[in-house]
Write a structure and sequence with these properties.
Blueprint lengths: L1 E2 L11 E2 L8 H11 L15 H15 L3 H4 L4 E5 L11 H13 L4 E6 L4 H8 L8 E3 L3 H9 L3 E5 L2 H8 L4 E4 L5 H4 L9 E3 L22 H4 L3 H16 L5
Helix pairs in contact: 2-6, 4-5, 4-10
Length: 247
């Protein structure tokens, strides 16, 4: 099975036809199922965690925050992933810091950072703008990371791998987008509490790993996304957790 592309399609017994229209990554891969004669019945992604894994994630989060498991059950927790594979996908560190500080002081939320092996500098940059450090879950095995994210109330992430883990474990997710195309890479529904944030700029989508615009235009897509905008979206999800607004 493979794509029905010029010169290559003839190599496959099952050819995947693509009309070239923009579609989500899920819809794109579902075309392969149809080529195999299977009609897709779902579009939601899912990582199935066992009860023991979810309990372990809850306990790990409570221990890291220094609170009891019982208190954690009534405390909104916002997970933040400030890293990404490429600099162009990273929201500004001072804005992540301001967001985290406001969530703690104005929204009464606990905040934790997550980080992969290559995110040390990204997290350190955010921490440098904070009056008090925020706990970091660094380089956890993927299923352990998934179990921690599953215990968060809301998860905020750049366009990176953990952003896709969060919806798959059922955590309302706010995706921060700059050069990427959220209509493709954020196939997660508003009805499930997910939201992609991006402000339009003339160069979007650039598909660049490093912004190449000079002067004031450098990282304009990320600069246009304000803390107020992200804070408002996250707080609305915290209010749903507290039951003060309808789901």
């Amino acid at each position: 099975m493979g794509p029905d592309r010029k010169g290559r399609g003839r190599a496959y017994t099952n050819r995947v036809h693509d009309d070239g229209k923009t579609r989500t990554a899920v819809e794109y891969h579902n075309q392969a199922l149809r080529a195999a004669g299977i009609e897709p019945t779902a579009t939601r992604t899912e990582i199935v965690l066992t009860k023991s894994e979810r309990d372990a994630g809850h306990a790990r989060l409570a221990l890291t925050l220094g609170i009891t498991s019982e208190r954690l059950a009534s405390t909104p927790v916002v997970g933040i992933h400030p890293g990404a594979s490429w600099p162009a996908k990273k929201w500004l560190p001072d804005r992540y810091a301001t967001l985290a500080d406001r969530l703690r002081n104005e929204a009464g939320a606990a905040v934790v950072f997550t980080a992969g092996p290559n995110d040390k500098d990204a997290v350190a940059a955010v921490q440098s703008f904070l009056p008090h450090p925020i706990p970091v879950f660094s380089s956890l095995p993927l299923r352990d990371l998934a179990s921690v994210i599953a215990s968060c109330t809301v998860y905020v992430s750049n366009d990176a791998g953990p952003m896709h883990i969060a919806p798959a474990v059922g955590t309302p997710t706010v995706g921060i987008f700059g050069p990427g195309e959220e209509q493709i890479w954020f196939p997660y529904g508003h009805g499930d509490g997910h939201r992609a944030l991006r402000n339009d700029v003339p160069c979007h989508p650039c598909h660049l790993d490093f912004c190449n615009r000079p002067g004031e235009g450098y990282m304009e897509c990320m600069k246009l996304l304000t803390v107020d905008e992200v804070f408002g979206v996250v707080v609305r999800r915290i209010e749903r957790f507290r039951g003060t607004v309808p789901h």
